[in-house]
Every structure is written in C-alpha cells, then in structure tokens.
Write a structure and sequence with these properties.
The complex is a heterodimer of chains A (257) and B (281). Helices cover 29% and strands 23% of the residues of chain A. Chain A is of the alpha/beta class. Chain A has a six-stranded mixed β-sheet with strand order 5-6-7-3-8-9, with helices on both faces. A three-stranded antiparallel β-sheet of chain A has the order 2-1-4, covered by helices on one side. Classes of the chains: A alpha/beta (257), B mainly alpha (281).
Chain lengths: 257, 281
Amino acid sequence: MGLVAETDPSPAAIEAKGLSFSYGGTPAVVDVSLRVEPGEFCALVGPNGSGKSTLVRLLLGLLQPDAGFVRCLGGEPRALAERWRIGYVPQRHSLAPALPATVEEVVSTGRIARRGWWRPPSRDDRRAVAHVLEAVGLAGLARRPVGALSGGEQQRVLIAKALVSEPALLVLDEPVAGVDASAQRAFRDSVVHEVREHGAAVLLVTHELGAVAADLDHVLVMKQSIVFDGGPTELSARGVSLGVHADDLPLWLESLT
Amino acid sequence: MSVIAEVPFFWPFDTGSMQLALAAAVVIAACAPLIGVFIVQRRQSLMGDGVGHVAFAGVAAGFLLDVWPVWTALVFAIGAAVVIEILRSRGRATGDLALALVFYGGLAAGSIMVGKAGVSGERVENYLFGSILELDTNDLLTIIGLGIAILVVLGVIGRALFAITLDEEASRVSGLPVAACNGALSVLTAVTIVAAMRVLGILLVAAMMVLPVASSRLLARSFRNTVLFAVGIGVVAAIAGLAAARAWDLEAGGSIVLCASILYGVVALVRGDQQTARTDG
C-alpha cells in the first residue's frame, strides 16, 4: 500500500494498480490496473469466468489482493471514513421470495450506514427514500411486499437501495442479468438519472452492453487481465459492436486479443 | 416467595405461582420472536435448538462441578452461538451443518456429564422441559431484566441487523459493523435460551423463537408487522398454553409450545383458503 501517494488532489472514483488474485493457485485476476474517474459511467465486460466479479470484490475491499493496491474515492475501500459513499448491488437474481418486507423497508436500509446505524430514520431519510422510489419508477409499489414483485422490479428495488444514500461511486454486478427488455430500459433510466443528478461514478459489470451503450463514457474488457481500456467510440472503431450479447462474447473478445 | 402472590386475578391466574408463570411466560414469549425474526430469515431456524443442546451440556457441567447450572449453561451457550456464527460467516460449514456439528456434540457431552454427576432424572427434566410453576421472584426479575436487555440491544442494532439480513455483502461494503451485529445476535440468542430454559425447557425454548415467526410471516406484508404479529402470537400462545395447562393439568412448557403450533396450523389453513379463494376469484 506504500506505493500510493499520501495526498491526491483529484482522487479517482476507483484506482487499481497491479491487482492479482488466485483461488488456490488458479489465477482469477492477473495484473489489473484501471482508473474510473468521478462522474464517469464505466462498463466492465467479459465472458463467464473472466474474473469480473472477483475484480469487483477486490475493488470493494471484500477480498484482499495477492499483489497490487486499490483506492476508492481517495482511500483504501475498507478504511474509508464514509463507506456509505460506495453503493453496491451484488450479483444475484432476486430477493428471497418469502421475504416479509415492503419495497420501502428494503430501500430504507440503504440509508442506515449514512445516518449512523444506531440512529432511527429522520425526515431527510424518509424524503430520500420517496425521491429515489420516484426516480426508479417504484413510487406506486412502495408498500408492496418485495416478494410479490417481478424479477425486474426486484432488481430496481436493489438499485434504489444502493442509490438512496446518494453514493459517489455505484458498483453494479450484472444487475440486468435475466430481466426483460423493458426492465433493462427502466434500469438504464435509473442509472443515467443518478449519474446526471448526483455526478456519481458508475462501474457496471455486465454481459450486455446494448441497454446502456449510448450512455457509456468508458469500457473495460476483461479476461483475467484487462484486454481493452478505452472509450466506446474507440471500441466501435476497432470493429466491435456494443450491442453484443452474452452468447457472442467469446467471439467478440477474440477480435481484441 | 412471590411479590405478586396477593394480587387478585381471574382464574386460571388466581394463584401466586400462576401469576409468576404468566409474567415470565409473557416476557419470554414476547422476546423470543424478536430474535426469531432474524434467525428465521437467515435460514437458521434450528439455531436455538443447536445452542439449546449445548446449554444442556452446560447444565450437566454445572451439576458435575457443583455450580449453579444457569451460569455454566450461559457460558456453554454463548460459546456455542459464537462458534456457529464463526463457522457460518467463514464459510467453513453451511448453516445447517454448523448447527448439526454443535447440536450433536452438545448432546453427547451433556449425556456423559449427567451420567458422571449422578443427578436425579427429575432435576435434569426440570431443565429439559422447564419448571415454570416453580419459579420464584428472583427468576422472574432475571427474566424481566433479560427482556429489557433484548429490547435495548435490538432497539440499537435492529435496523442494522435487518439490513445485514437482507444483504450481508452490500452491508459490509457500506460500512455497517456486520461481524459485531452478527455476534450480538448470536449472544442474544444464547442468553435468551438460558434465561428461558427454566420457563419452557431447553428442548422447547427454541420453538418460541420460530413458531410465532412462522405464523406471522404468513400474515404480514411488511417486516414491521412481521415483528409485531410474531410478538402478539407468542403472547397469545403463552397465555392460552398456561390456561390449558392449569385447566387440564398439563406440562406448562409443552402446552405453550403446542398452542403456538396450533396457532400456526390455524393461520396456515386460513391463509391457504384465502389464497385459494383469491386464485379462484
């Protein structure tokens, strides 16, 4: 960690240098360096087993790297004073079907770390929850049990939960996997709203760039290490379609390596 | 001697011992589901059972060492709850396997120590099945103190625990004290079991953590109502169970838990009918 300068005048949303990680001798992430700027909408793509989720867990401090270092919002992710400034939606398909909780209750939990976990919710917290539910198009479902929602709606609940603390960095691990096209559009609108309204940086791990291709600032393509790091126009200039689907991805990667 | 022995009250709670039993059972039945809503949602419904079996080993150790068994049970139960949490959180064993390991080990150790201590079957049974009608005022005050402690601790960590129960990894990223809250829940579970074992018995106390919650999950549409309904159902089961025990000369602990089971059956039937009617309509 001594590699990092003590003060950084304009800290990146995420900065990683020389990150490597193995699971019992099998390398999952090899010498990855990357930088995501504040307010940037960045996609991390790659085929199944390419190490994307492991990289995300390293970037968030949930795993310790074998080598290299990570900084989020200017500090080590586990040592940040205001860790609630990082919003995270882990990879999953849905909430537990029998979960006895309303949309409003689930989204409210996203404010707990910000206000102090021992404190009851304030008027500001309630206002923020109402605002974010409006923004993701779930205001009419606030009192509905989450278990009664569709997969796409549940994903939006989880995204709203991550957005409600008004994070400076939002990390979404395959949030649109398995949801239909209209849910993907609603997801895109929610994320773009967040980027525009609050200037949050977004790191989106995805198989499918189609839904957000027009809004991206930055694309990272990964296969254990980073094989492409640049803007979407640069990627298109190399003859790669951004409307790529999961099944085509390995072929698509061939053109980059 | 009971401090509330002189209070005039209606049958079946017209005697001092029944009034003590009622107060203790209501406190336990209201508090156990408060812990239960979290452990059921984490799919650790048998946590109370696992810890209870180790508490039995603690009771046996108390007999063997000639120490008040409640203290040794407390030490053993907290130790077991912490071990289960460590096994679960480090992924060394799945939740149910971690429970099974502790469960069987506790039972085996308990049976060996009871044999060595040479205590009577009746003394052991008092801990296994409870002895609610033999409580004294000190027992009641201990139980009330525990109830207050549970309310205070959950009042402070309850919201964070709910967030952790929903999504442990996202909670960790956002900076919530995940390990401390999980540890506190484990210790609260252990303390509740030990405090309640004189009321309901080691073998039955875990049921009051789970059964009222199972019923309320069928009724409630929000987490807040799940908690409120579970407490209400627990209290109804405690009162009805004690009344039935007095009326038909039943074991009180078993009678309370049986009432909670019957309430679950009724709720499941009614909810099932409503859902069928809705589907048909």
